[in-house]
Amino acid sequence: MNALLHDFLTQSEEQREAAASLAARLELESSDPRVEAGLFGYFHAIKGAAEFLGLTRLEAIARFGERLIEKLRKGEARSEEIAPWAKIAIKRIEFVQRALAAQAGEPPGDDADLRDAFARLSADALAANPDDALAPLGEAGFGAETLPPGRHGESVRVPTLTLERITTSLAELAMARDQLVEAARARADEPIPASLRRLCEVVADIGASVVSARATPIGRLFAGLLDSARLASLAMERPARLLVEGGDTVIEGAHVEILRESLRELILIAIEHCLDAPAERRALGKPEEGRITLTARARRGLVTIEIADDGRGFDAIGDGAALRSVSEKIGELGGEFMLIGGPGRRAKAALTLPIRQPIATTFIVSAGDERYAVFRRDVEETLDLSLVPEGSLICAEGELFLATPEGVLPAVNLRRLLGATDAPTPNPAPGMALKLRFGARVFWLIVEEIVAVRDLAPAPLPSPLQSLSLFAGTAILGDGSVVLVLDRAGLAGELGLPKSDWLGPARAADLEADASLVNAVLFRSRDAALRAAPLRAIERIASFDAADVRHDAEALSIAVDGRWLPLVALPETPWERARPGAAKALILRDGEDRLALWVEEIVDLLEQKPEALRATALERIDPARLFERRRQVRRASDGPKGNRVLFIGPSEFFREIVEVALRENGYEVVAVRESEKAMERLAGDPGLAAVLFSDESSAGRVEAFARQLRALATGSPPALIALTDNRELVGFDAQVDRFDRAGLLKALRDLCPPRSGVAA
Amino acid sequence: MNTALPIGQDDRESRRAFLTLRERGARYALPIDCVRSVFRLGRVTRAPRAPSHVIGLANPFGAAMAVVSLARRLEPELGERETSSLAIALVVDDQTFALAVESVEGVIHSPQTGFAAAPGVEDPEPPGLLEGLVRHDDGSLWPILRPLRLLALSPRGGDVASRISR
User: Which helix (H) or strand (E) holds A543?
Assistant: First the structure.
């Protein structure tokens, strides 16, 4: 099959789902110009492409559809007369296209039924000659006045292969750029020429354009999903409405099919298992029609799609196998699937998918004589091992751990892992550690050196290396050599950390009824009682000084990773200030939420069957309950956030632009030029809703500042938003291009909506 | 049929071309329509945990390609002892890779009837590295390598999904 035909069939499959949905709407609702325009556009596009490809039968069917809609527009037929035939035409197009996809050519057939139908519907001259329905139309038949608005010159189709070639050429361009930059750096006494700076900007621009060209708005899937939800709701007799948001969020074109399948699966699960039956809903005082909300948003090269319901939530699912299947499919795309939430907070299903970047910032790290690349976006933090106390790297029973003031995390020595040496590495030469996160799993990657930070154009692993799970792909360095890009999921797998995070950790024990063993940490609490906490809910163990525990609003908190976390000390008796001294806490995670559980001593690791554990007198900690109690405390103590936004940046001009945009949208802006002033301001104004940071200093400095801000914040911290171009920063809640006004407002609305009554 | 065919007259329309090469003293032929170029093997990046016949990755034309050692493919027990300095870039079924060899000799043209099929060739996916034999001008028979088999993949190329976007 030639590439053009292949692309045509692929694209029109998506369009066909949308068209089928529109035809269904035409049948159910009275005529709507947008529905008519959508259907006309579909038939018109199919007709044009079929004509170009010499597919005469397909062209004739599409022309029939086009003229049907024309009749509707002219008021010559009613929508209920047209809709059934529009649906038949769409089905017929699907039939022909499936034959084409099977490389069987256009199937024979004269579509006389369609011609007859058109004749019956026609009251004008065409009715006298039914064959005209499928005869070629003159130009007047689809003149500009009949075309849907805005279809001229908006887009062209580009074969996927061409996009791949552009991506490859971009990689070569980036390589040449790096060589030039290297050469310019070698001349330390001369400034980098302006032309080279411009070249760097252009390469970045092309990279962004390629991302955009490869992407497709997720809204293209919505029509089909709405249809599926409607049909499932009818079939299961559970009235349900699917609400969608974020249709302009873009996803990788290559992810469309699997994503469509996964979302449809989740929506059906939600209708069947999460929504109560109408009678039960009535009894609960809810409207009979249930609501399922699908929200898509993008952040830092990742797209997150959440599915929520107003029923019992995904907690109610009996069939974990269906979720596991979704998790596996999403995992194949390099994404993650998890449930977020707990009792009292209906669990949502969340999918996260990456967007492939033609040019990505990477750390080039060394292991022995070899170099590898790590995506910067995967790295949460870097640590110079020459600065950590001796003994921080712990080698226990062949496994490596790195102890930092924030706690002990598993670690992997890259050199040892990749076979450059067989020696275990309890005390390696001073090197660097990179903290990587994959879902809820966090671990350290130990390397000898971070050699450089480079923008590279990653490419897939070539044959026959695709099965190497440790690597995400390859890239070419400035000196022309090949570097392998490490895969965080593969590294996590090497450490024995599960690669799939399909269940929210706090909910997993309840849902996996068939789990044969329960892993739990047995610990001694402050009252010397023995208690057990499920291992799967524990992110890690952190150390802190008891004197640093903060006590306010009837709640305890400690600083971990530069953020204040709620601290639970069992039993929850009135607080008495603890004496200074080293203390430990289990850091528990539930979706995005974390809390610390104070432990005096970790006694053992339990591996028992659930019933055996239940039979003991041991108090089992239910993390979900702890999280829910913390949320209740937070809701009670959190007043509404203010509308004040702190802007930090040296440019007066830019500050003015931002101020105008935000004030128009209900925010009060406080501006400072320097970060030191911002610290003072933040310390004196805990009601700040957000901090906007526009500083083109080095990424390290900006990220360190973000960490300081978080450490300084009390209660619920303000949202941190970086206004920056062409770089990825760690530690911010959102990152927006400097002149992306709409993006900034959306980020603000998402993270800290203005108080009610204020326009946003 | 596994029978060697008789050598027929030289019919230009049915002639096939082969690149001939040597490895560990033995002679082989590769169908020339799979050969993209011959290049001197420069820096090769080791690919940990790769199959033993893959030396690593090279970048002869601006993109990474796996370098397969013919010697190791033929003799897996050879380990890392062989050191080839020459490679042939091959494109088969949209898959590009380099084959490290001892030396390249030249191109021969041979009539279709100059081939003998290897055993099992009637099977659409026959096992083994050899497609058949081709007769050289001097009358000797050269084994024809089956390029895709050198990768040790199925003819469809196995899993080409990439995890690059993670």
Answer: strand A538-545
The single-letter code of the amino acid at B92 is V
Query: What residues of chain B lie within 8 A of the CB of A485, using their CB?
Result: 164
Element (H, E) at A727: none
* Facing residue for A462 by CB, picked from B96, B159, B161: B96
The letter for the amino acid at B30 is L
DSSP A163-218: HHHHHHHHHHHHHHHHHHHHHHHH-TTSPPPHHHHHHHHHHHHHHHHHHHHHEEET
| Closest-CA residue of chain B to A372 | B45
Concatenating the DSSP letter of every residue in A248-269 gives T-EEEGGGHHHHHHHHHHHHHH
Give the integer Cα–Cα distance in Å for B34 and B91.
5
| A414: helix, strand or coil | helix
Most B CBs within 10 A among A211, A370, A482, hence the mutation to make, goes to A482
CB contact under 8 A, B166 and A172: no
d(CA A345, CA A628): 8
Using a CB-CB cut-off of 8 Å, the residues of chain B touching A476 are 59, 62-64
- Residue in chain A closest to B159 (alpha carbons) equals A466
Q: Is B12 on the interface with A (CB under 8 A)?
A: no
Task: Tell me the pLDDT tens digit for each residue of A524-575.
Answer: 888 788 888 877 777 777 778 888 887 765 678 887 766 678 888 887 776 6
Cβ contact, residue pair B162, A483, below 8 Å? no
**What is the SS3 assignment for A244?**
strand
- A358 and chain B: CB distance < 8 Å anywhere? no
Whether B164 sits inside 8 A of A462 (CB atoms) is no
Q: Please, what is the angle between helix A320-332 and helix A256-269, to 10°?
A: 160
> Whole-prediction pTM value?
0.51
A67 contact partners, CB below 8 Å, separation of at least 6: A118, A133, A137, A141
What DSSP string runs through A633-675?
Answer: HHHHH-PPP-SEEEEE-S-HHHHHHHHHHHHHTT-EEEEESSH
Cβ neighbours for A148, distance < 8 A, ≥ 6 positions apart: A37, A38, A40, A41, A44
B158/A469 Cβ within 8 A: no
In angstroms, the separation between the Cα of residue A460 and the nearest Cα of chain B is: 5
Q: Which residues of chain B have pLDDT under 70?
A: 1-14, 78-83, 112-127, 153-166
The one-letter amino acid code at B6 reads P
| Distance between CA atoms of residues A641 and A689, nearest Å | 6
User: For residue range A11-31, what is the model confidence (pLDDT) as tens digits?
Assistant: 777 778 778 878 877 776 666
Q: Is the pLDDT of residue A606 over 80?
A: no
CB contact under 8 A, A481 and B50: no
First to last CA, chain B: 48
- How large is the ipTM? 0.81
Q: Is-contact B89 B39, C-beta < 8 A?
A: yes
Closest residue in chain B to residue A333, using alpha carbons only: B163
Residue A178 contacts B, CB cutoff 8 Å? no
Count CB neighbours of A61 within 10 A: 27
**pLDDT single digits (tens) A360-375:** 888 999 988 899 999 8
Q: Which of B46, B96, B160 sits opposite A370 (nearest CB)?
A: B46
Instruction: List the single residue in A417, A459, A490 with the smallest CB-CB distance to B64.
Output: A459
Tell me the chain B residues in contact with residue A334 when contact means C-beta distances shorter than 8 Å: 163-166
Q: What is the largest CA-CA distance in chain B?
A: 57
Structural element, H or E, at residue A475:
strand A471-476
- Specify whether the CB–CB gap between A655 and A723 falls below 8 A: no
Nearest CB among B50, B58, B165 relative to A482 is that of B58
User: How far is Cα A31 from Cα A24, in angstroms, rounded to an integer?
Assistant: 12
d(CA A710, CA A672): 18
